[in-house]
Amino acid sequence: MPKSRSGFRALFSSSSPKTTRQLKQHQDQINDLEDRLSSLENVYTKDIEVLKYIEEQRMQAEESKRKQFRQARENIRQQVWVDPKLRRYVELMGLDNFTTMTLVHC
């Protein structure tokens, strides 16, 4: 057993230039991989932030469209009840609000 220990020590002793060079190369490789990983984590984090921003913008656009549709529907409803001809037509035909809005758009 002492021989294997001394062999182990010789392998990792600072007096061995080949081993020191290999350790330095391995440490450089590890550092390079850590840098790459860090870079990828930064890109991943930025991608997540961009995706969140895009999702927020999409949600705001959908809400804006819903508001515009509600406003347009209310405007049509007001037009129907303000315009005596349209109101009379709707009353005579017994139309519901959806049909009325469709007719006004046409």
Shape: rod-shaped
Helix-strand makeup class: mainly alpha
Please compute the radius of gyration using only Cα atoms. 38 Å
For the biggest sheet, the summary is: none
H and E order: HHHH
Percent of residues in helices comes to: over 70%
- Approximately how much beta-strand content do the residues carry? under 5%
Distance between the termini: 97 Å
Please provide the count of β strands: 0
How many H/I helical runs? 4
Model regions low in confidence, pLDDT < 50 over at least 5 residues = none
The tally of domains stands at: 1
Task: Classify the oligomer.
Answer: single chain
User: For the residues shown, what is the average pLDDT?
Assistant: 78
Structural features, described:
91% of the residues lie in helices and 0% in strands. With 106 residues, the protein is mostly helical. It has one domain (2-105). The protein is rod-shaped. The protein starts with a helix and ends with a helix. Residues 12-22 have a biased composition (Polar residues). Residues 1-28 are annotated as: Disordered.
Task: Note the topology.
Elements: H1 2-12, H2 17-82, H3 84-93, H4 97-105
Summarize the structure.
With 106 residues, this protein is an all-alpha fold.
Features:
106 residues, mainly alpha, 4 helices, 91% helix, 0% strand
